[in-house]
Amino acid sequence: MRVPTRCLSLVLALGAAAPLAAKAPVPAAKPSRPSAEVAATDADVILRLRAGILRAEDERDAADPALVAALSHPVASLRQRAVRALGRIGDPSSVSLVSRSLVDRDLEVRREAVFALGEIESPAALTSLMRVLTTDDAEQRALAAEALAKISW
Predict the structure, then answer these.
(1) Long-range contacts, 21-27 (Cβ 8 Å, 24+)
(2) Please, which pLDDT band fits residue 139 given cuts at 50, 70 and 90?
(3) CA–CA separation, 101 vs 97, rounded Å?
(4) Closest listed residue to residue 125, CA positions, set 95, 94, 84, 80
(5) What angle do CA 105, 111, 115 make, to 5 degrees?
(6) Taking the CB of residue 90, how many other CB atoms lie within 10 A of it?
(7) How many helices (H) and strands (E) does the chain have?
């Protein structure tokens, strides 16, 4: 019977080599990253995206790759922050990006998207905002009404 070297070293170090012969070999574990390493990497990615959002907002660049990537990130607060940045930038070309967030799975992201469309003040957002007026969420409807009032038709 062949025992993986790692296991044999551990058993010998613990002084339990005798019972090893009677047992079947232990299959080697699948290599995986420790959860702390995964969390650290995820935190690093989030931090880099947040920095990219701030940079894009400072530079008034609605097409910044970090900003666009944050819009589809699994973390809702990151998507929300990216939508807010697009609203603050105010570039009419970002209406389509923000409008996609109107159907986000997170309610706060959807609300932020409605507000951001009002901040952009582009007639291109009229159709999207009119659709929001039919939603079940009263706050979204109120935000849509405010946004529509800001837009010059």
Answers:
(1) 25/1
(2) very high
(3) 7
(4) 95
(5) 140
(6) 14
(7) 8, 0
How far apart are alpha carbons 51 and 26 in whole angstroms? Answer: 46
pTM equals 0.73
**Of how many residues is the chain composed?**
153
Angle at 31 between CA 39 and CA 16, to 5 degrees: 110
Q: Which tens digit of pLDDT belongs to each residue from 69-92?
A: 999 999 999 999 999 999 999 999
Q: How far apart are the first and last CA of the chain?
A: 81
Dihedral over alpha carbons 7, 8, 13, 17 (to 10 degrees) = 120
- Compare 67 and 40 and report the one with higher pLDDT: 67
The residue type at 47 = L
- DSSP letter at 25 equals P
Which pair of tokens denotes residue 16?
A: 């339990």
Tokens of 119: 């901040």
The whole-number pLDDT of residue 39 equals 54
Percent of the chain with pLDDT over 90: 71
Cα torsion 150, 142, 57, 70 to 10°: value is -140
